[in-house]
Amino acid sequence: MDLRENRRAVIVGLFLAIGLIVFILGVFTLGGQSKSFSKSVHISAVFDDVAGLKKGNNVWFSGVKVGTISDIHFTGPSQVDVKMSVDENSRQYIHDNAQVHIGSDGLIGNKIIVIDGGSPQAPIIREGDILQSAKIVSTDDIIKVVQQNNENLLAITSDFKLLSHKILQGKGTVGTLLADSMMGVQLKQSMHNLQIATQSAAVMANNLNKFSNKLSTKGGFADKLFTDTVTFNKIQGAVAQLKAAADNANILTQNLNKASNKLNSTDNVLGILLNDKASAAKVQTSINNLQQGTVKLNDDLEAAQHNFLLKHFFKERAKAKADSLKNAGKQ
Fold it and tell me: Which CATH architecture has domain 38-136?
């Protein structure tokens, strides 16, 4: 009996020793995961909504667990202060201008604190620092946005259904275009005309380009006109002469105008002759009388030459004239 009881006591002792060893290893393992036995720095952040965050949840930085949440409590209306314990070895990588936000450990996992950003120029975090928190998008907000998008999609679908129904009925421009084959032919012809007009515009642009290139050709008229001062001065002189000629023509036109006005008036002889028929008739009568008087005078002179009293005078006169002509022929 004594040997059996001793054996039982040894077995119980072994089980107790193994259990104690397992317990100690578990404590150290859990303590290592929660950083319970490592030196840490305590920081905090204030949130309007922690979305189910709990004490003991993890703190992550750049995808690495760097600490745990040590406490959560209210600090004011709708404000929650979340205190975090960050491993001292990770503190050198986290700067005091970093932001924190609430994330999830996986798709539907526990809520965690995620530390983002921070510039290397800023100081590293110290004991008691309060980091800036970023507003999180809650599930309710996501559901509201999805619901609103569904409503907008339903409205768009309804409008498109109504629009397609009107198009099938031939209403509107698109419906008429689909239902009226003649309109489709006209539209096709319009597009063809537009294409022709576009090609014509391209040809005209090409011709204008060629024309501008000719104008800028060295030694051409346009080049001389714009660059040769001698040619420009000649052209300017020709323009001045043309202007003077135009001025003279204008003066001549004015003088002719004045002469025409005088001829149309009755304050001068020519005007009277041209415009006053009675005066013109009188002048014509006077001219006729003068012509008749001249004829009679010639007849009288012819008769006087044959008069015996004056016949000797005219013979002497004719003889003297003949001698004068003879002497002039000898010289």
Answer: Beta Barrel (2.40)
